[in-house]
Each structure stands twice: as structure tokens, then as C-alpha cells.
Amino acid sequence: MKNVFKSALIAVLILIAFRIHCAAQPQHDTLKVLFVGNSYIYVGNLPHLVSIISDSCETKLITSKSVAGGAFLSEHWNGKRGLKTKELISTGNFDIVVLQDQSMAAVNQPDSLRKYVRLFCEYIRDNNARPYLYLTWAREKAPEQQEIISKVYKEAAAENNAIVVPVGEAWAMARGINPNYQLYFRDGSHPSTDGTILTACVFVAVILNEVPDRLPNYYIIADSVGESVWLAGSDTDFLNLCKEVAGSFIR
Questions:
Q1: In sequence order, what are the residues at sequence separation of 6 or more whose Cβ sits closer than 8 angstroms to the Cβ of residue 152?
Q2: What is the spatial distance between Cα 184 and Cα 16, in angstroms, rounded to a whole number?
Q3: pTM of the entire structure?
Q4: pLDDT tens-digit profile of 50-80?
Q5: Angstrom distance (rounded) from CA 99 to CA 71
């Protein structure tokens, strides 16, 4: 009986100590962020990486996504392909909504991009959130298109008082510093693991105006049953490059 009482007492003391420890930890402010787009968001677990990197910042980014492969903003707006983006914006109590059109829309359909950015920016503000535009990268074999992509997204942002997250320009900068790192997946379009990590760092830098002093070499989350799921990993030299590049976009 004494052993049972002793074990129960120890368990209570451990629980009290844990609660005291948790109370002593600095509490994060939080921002809820919805990513709207396509595979340039879900390939590489971008929203998850953004959230994990923000753990080391003063504000925690709580991220969600509304995506479909190759989706245009027009499809999000009109609820095509089962997308419920507008419903999510109106009910999700988001602080920020990130908009990303189909990867070649800025080149091939700039007028459509501008139209639906305008409609979404108005809708986002009506629902008390701030619009951000995900300025994407040119295809690996067509780097000359980066100038067009940047121009269209920046003009759309200026027209709608939205904030640009210049990921494509960050990729170009990183490749200029060290072209040995492969930011593209083998299809020359989607991001590699390193490409997604750099992208996530740029998002954190632009949204929070800071980059953590240290970035983890491995990114792991827990699934719905508490099991660890490996998301991404990279070497220290590349992570230092990410800090350097992302830091250049801090306002």
C-alpha cells in the first residue's frame, strides 16, 4: 500500500513540475495562415515547414491549405474541382491568406491572374484577413521568364495593396550565390526538398520580419496518432544560405 501511495505521490509531483515548466516557457503569439493554390504549395509540405520554422520566432504561424494540382485562382473563386476556398476564408478566422495562381498563369494568363487576385483581395479583407501573393519561380529551363512573373505579381500586389512574398526572386538569388544546390525537383518545375525549405524561410521572413538564428537540419511532425513523420532535411551550409537569402527580404 505504501508503494502505491509513494508512486501516486511521485506522479503528482512530476505533473506539477511539468505544469510549472510549461508555465515558465515564453508563450507565442499566433497568426493563422491559409495557403491557397496548387502543387507549388503541397509538394514538399510547405505550410508545415513554415509552421515548424516559426516555432523559433516570436510569433507562431498556424497554417492550413486549400489546394488542387494545377489549380488556377479562377477555379478557387468559382468552387471548381471540389475546392471550398471561399468558404474556408469566410469561416476560418484567418489572419493571412496567401494566394498563388497556376505556375504559368503570370506568363500565359496575366489578365486572369490580376482579375482573381483583385476579387480575392477584396473578399479576404471583407473577412478581416490580409492578402499575400506568392510570387513563384520560373521553370528551370526558362529562367528568363522570372522577370515576367515578378512584374505581374508585383503589379497585382500594388493594385490591391497586398504583400508580395518574392520566392522566385529568392530562388534566383540563392542560385546566384551557390548554383550547386538543386532547388528544383527533377521535372524542372516543382521544388526539391531544398527548394521547399528555402521557400518556407522566405515566407517566415516576410510574414514575421525575422529569420530564426538556427534552423533545424530535420523537420518532423506528429501525425494524428502521435507518430513522428519526417518531412524534410538539409545540410547546415544550405540552411545558412537560406538564412542569408531570406534575411535579405526582412523589411
A1: 106, 107, 110, 113, 114
A2: 49
A3: 0.88
A4: 999 999 999 999 999 999 999 999 999 999 9
A5: 11
